[in-house]
Backbone:
């Protein structure tokens, strides 16, 4: 598949998950190309059965179009970004075509680690992660369980950081219960000693409240 066609499929997938931005806006931000440039390719993708027109502004991927993309999901708190995060996100992206990052809500993050101190609300953390070019879409996780969000995104791969508490078997079994066919990857890091909690302690929490 041509890279432009795949870019269109990615943009439609992203806009379906996050309707606040149309797929054309997403494409124009990424490539700074006028929308007329894409029109013939969109018509071609409809003819090939990859996408379907909903109305004059919206499209959706058919099963063939969705199968043409490999979506990788990464979840985390991302209260501050450090080199370990960047390495994890880059490695996760290398396993697929499109990277979706799920930002944990404060309540979800504290359920996983009771003594966690969170300095930034989820909207600020989402904005921070969204600023990275390697991230195709950052979304705030649904309240409830991790698997409500996984069911919404329907990724092909879930990439776990080296120190994330969930086990591969736990995620795999719960996905199976929801009929979600997904591959689980545990990522390594060349810098295992860098952790957000330790950075906060060394730099001082007051630094982040300026």
Residues:
């Amino acid at each position: 598949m041509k890279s432009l066609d795949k870019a269109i499929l990615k943009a439609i997938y992203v806009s379906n998950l996050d309707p606040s931005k149309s797929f054309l806006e997403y494409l124009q931000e990424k490539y700074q190309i006028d929308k007329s440039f894409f029109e013939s390719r969109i018509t071609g993708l409809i003819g090939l059965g990859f996408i379907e027109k909903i109305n004059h502004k919206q499209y959706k991927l058919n099963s063939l179009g969705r199968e043409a993309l490999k979506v990788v999901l990464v979840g985390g708190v991302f209260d501050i970004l450090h080199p370990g995060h960047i390495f994890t996100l880059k490695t996760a992206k290398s396993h697929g075509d499109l990277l979706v990052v799920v930002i944990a809500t404060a309540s979800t993050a504290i359920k996983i680690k009771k003594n966690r101190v969170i300095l930034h609300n989820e909207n600020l953390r989402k904005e921070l992660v969204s600023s990275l070019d390697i991230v195709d879409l950052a979304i705030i996780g649904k309240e409830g369980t991790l698997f409500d969000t996984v069911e919404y995104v329907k990724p092909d791969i879930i990439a776990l950081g080296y120190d994330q508490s969930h086990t591969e078997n736990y995620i795999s079994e719960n996905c199976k219960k929801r009929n979600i066919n997904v591959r689980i990857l545990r990522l390594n890091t060349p810098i295992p000693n860098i952790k957000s909690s330790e950075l906060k302690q060394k730099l001082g929490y007051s630094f982040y409240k300026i």
The chain has two domains: 3-66, 70-209. The first strand starts at residue 51 and ends at 53. The chain has a mean pLDDT of 85.
